[in-house]
Specification:
50% helix; 4 strands; alpha+beta; Glutaredoxin; 2 domains; Glutathione S-transferase Yfyf (Class Pi), Chain A, domain 2
Length: 220
C-alpha cells in the first residue's frame, strides 16, 4: 500500500474538494498542503515541478518500493485511489450502472465545472470588461446545465444520485453545487439537486472536506 499521501489543494477549489471527500470516504490519511491560487502560487517554479499544468489538485505519495510519485487531474486521482483502496467503492458493480455513474460525473467535470476555473473567469472578465458579466455568464451556464442534470438523475436518484449508495456522481455533485451557490444560481429551480446536496452534506466525508473546514480557508 502506498503511503505518505500529500494533497496539494486550495480550499475553494471544487476539483480539490472531490479528492478531499474521496480521501475521507476511503479513510486514507493525508497531509494537506495549501496552494494559494489567488496570489499565483500555482505558477511558482516550486509548484510547477510538482504539477507542470499549474493546477490543483495534485496528489503526492510514496510507493511501496520507496519512489515518490505525483498524480494530477482529479479524475486520474480518483481512478488511482479506487484501485489501491477498492472498498468502499464509489462505483456500482454492474457495468451499465457504472457507466451511468461516470456519465453523470463527466457531465459535471467536463460540461459544467471548467467554465468556473479561475483562469477562464479572468479571461471572460477581460473580454467583457466586467466582473459582473463574467459572474452572470457562469450563472447562466450552470443553470442551463443543471436543468439537464436534474433530468438525468430523476430516474436514478434515491437518497443519493444513484440509489442509497454514495458514488462518484455524488463526489462530483456536491462541490459543483457549492460553485452554483457562489455564482448565485437559484437552487429552488432544481429541487432534486437541492435535496441531494442537503442529504450529502450531512455525510462525514463531505463534512470533513468542506471548504470552510480547510486550514487555508482564510485565503480569499
Amino acid at each position: 500500500m502506498p503511503s505518505k499521501f500529500v494533497l496539494f489543494s486550495y480550499w475553494r477549489s471544487s476539483c480539490s474538494w472531490r479528492i478531499r471527500a474521496l480521501l475521507e470516504y476511503k479513510r486514507i490519511p493525508y497531509e494537506y498542503r495549501a496552494i494559494n491560487l489567488l496570489n499565483g502560487e500555482q505558477f511558482s517554479p516550486e509548484f510547477l515541478r510538482i504539477n507542470p499544468l499549474g493546477l490543483v489538485p495534485a496528489l503526492q505519495f510514496q510507493t511501496e518500493d520507496g519512489r515518490t510519485e505525483i498524480i494530477s487531474e482529479s479524475m486520474a486521482i480518483v481512478d488511482y485511489l479506487e484501485h489501491i483502496v477498492p472498498e468502499p467503492s464509489i462505483f456500482p458493480k454492474d457495468p451499465i450502472e457504472r457507466a451511468k455513474v461516470i456519465a453523470v460525473a463527466e457531465a459535471i467535470v467536463s460540461g459544467i465545472q471548467p467554465v468556473q476555473n479561475l483562469g477562464v473567469m479572468k479571461l471572460v472578465e477581460q473580454m467583457t470588461g466586467s466582473k459582473e458579466k463574467s459572474l452572470e455568464w457562469s450563472n447562466k451556464w450552470i443553470a442551463m446545465k443543471f436543468k439537464r442534470l436534474e433530468l438525468m438523475l430523476k430516474s436514478t436518484a434515491g437518497k443519493y444520485c444513484f440509489g442509497d449508495r454514495l458514488t462518484l456522481a455524488d463526489i462530483c455533485l456536491v462541490p459543483q453545487i457549492a460553485n452554483a451557490i457562489r455564482y448565485r444560481v437559484d437552487l429552488d429551480e432544481f429541487p432534486l439537486l437541492k435535496q441531494l446536496n442537503e442529504t450529502l452534506l450531512s455525510c462525514e466525508c463531505f463534512q470533513k472536506s468542506r471548504p470552510e473546514n480547510q486550514p487555508d480557508q482564510t485565503l480569499t
